[in-house]
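Example for tutorial group B:
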């Protein structure tokens, strides 16, 4: 098949574990663009925290941000799929007994609990991402209040916990109680909540419509649970070898890890 659109996840896929873009991966992306493939970013990150060295690649016009809650063209937001106000309030009610570390994505920006901002490693962040956390987020001592005040305009909200049993229990409960909310994870300590229609797969379909590209002429790559639906939908898909089981199951092929330039191999296959 002829691939006309390639959607690439960033963290754990395009970016190395140290949160950097390998020169050879950058060169491969440029080669794909020069060959006529539309390359789009498809990330769980809000737009404001997209890596500058990725966005600076000439030819990357489209960004799927916040797990599909927003689409940007040349830095301008062209689509929004925010959480329903009632669902936001219900999440706060259902979790009120738990002292969780919350983050909120609002109009492309991130606000996080001051406790996480002050000591990200305590809550499972790696050394390589500490600078990213502090450089890409504002912070607030009352995140539940922040979420309540901005409940009408939130792209997504998420909580961070190193307690696996608690994460799984709350995930199951929220999924059961909130059919209008899509719940996923881009990293093992995160539980991320968006509008049920705000997924990377749905955003990829919207982008195909905007570009008049058949979904069978798309390819996608990812590493986490929040990429699985996009990989299952795309005409061709690849999971890096360091991907989660759900992501690996959804992919057509497995490529080397993010630290081994797996995206380069994918692009070579496509070309």
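The residue assignment follows.
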């Amino acid at each position: 098949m002829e691939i006309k659109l390639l959607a690439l996840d960033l963290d754990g896929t395009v970016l190395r574990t140290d949160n950097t873009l390998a020169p050879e991966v950058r060169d491969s992306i440029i080669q794909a663009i020069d060959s006529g493939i539309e390359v789009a970013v498809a990330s769980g990150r809000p737009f404001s925290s997209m890596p500058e060295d990725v966005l600076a690649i000439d030819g990357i016009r489209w960004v799927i941000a916040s797990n599909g809650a927003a689409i940007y063209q040349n830095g301008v937001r062209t689509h929004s799929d925010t959480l329903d106000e009632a669902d936001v309030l219900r999440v706060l009610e259902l979790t009120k007994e738990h002292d969780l570390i919350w983050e909120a994505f609002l109009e492309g920006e991130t606000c996080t609990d001051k406790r996480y901002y002050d000591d990200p490693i305590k809550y499972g962040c790696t050394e390589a991402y500490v600078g990213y956390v502090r450089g890409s987020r504002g912070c607030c001592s009352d995140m539940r209040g922040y979420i309540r005040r901005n409940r009408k305009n939130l792209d997504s909200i998420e909580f961070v916990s190193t307690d696996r049993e608690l994460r799984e229990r709350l995930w199951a409960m929220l999924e059961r109680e909130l059919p209008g909310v899509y719940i996923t994870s881009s990293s093992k300590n995160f539980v991320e909540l968006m509008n049920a229609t705000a997924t990377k797969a749905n955003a990829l379909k919207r982008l195909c419509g905007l570009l008049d590209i058949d979904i069978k002429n798309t390819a996608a790559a990812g590493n986490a649970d929040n990429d699985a639906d996009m990989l299952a939908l795309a005409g061709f898909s690849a999971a890096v070898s360091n991907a989660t089981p759900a992501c690996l199951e959804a992919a057509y092929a497995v490529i080397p890890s993010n630290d081994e330039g797996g995206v380069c191999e994918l692009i070579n296959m496509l070309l």
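The longest helix spans residues 164-177. Compare this with the pattern of hydrophobic and polar residues in the output above.
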